[in-house]
Design a protein that fits this description.
The chain has about 90 residues and is α+β, with helices and mostly antiparallel strands. About 40% of the residues lie in helices and about 25% in strands. It is built from four helices and four strands; from the N terminus they run βαββαβαα.
Length: about 90
């Protein structure tokens, strides 16, 4: 499981097209995934993140999900299992 494509520019106009549905979202800085999160409303969470990390994130991607908290944990475990680093904003928040 991965949230990687398509990636959209992390800009208010582009975020306005994100779904209101709940699910997962990822923030990217170039090719580096810098954050994985879950939200009751992907659009609202992304708008909130624009205020917090807009200078760091360049793109975002999302996945609608009915079990976002379990899938978020699965994604983070998958990254760890592959030997990759935890996204840096997730590390900073831990």
């Amino acid at each position: 499981m991965a949230i990687s494509e398509p990636r959209y520019r992390f800009h208010p106009v582009m975020v306005s097209g994100a779904p209101e549905s709940g699910g997962l979202f990822a923030l990217w800085r170039g090719a580096e995934m810098i954050f994985i999160g879950r939200a009751a409303s992907i659009k609202e969470a992304l708008l909130d993140q624009l205020q917090r990390v807009s200078e760091r994130a360049t793109h975002y991607s999302w996945q609608v999900s009915l079990r976002a908290s379990g899938e978020e944990a699965d994604l983070l475990r998958e990254l760890e299992r592959r030997g990759g680093p935890m996204p840096r904003l997730n590390r900073e928040a831990a």
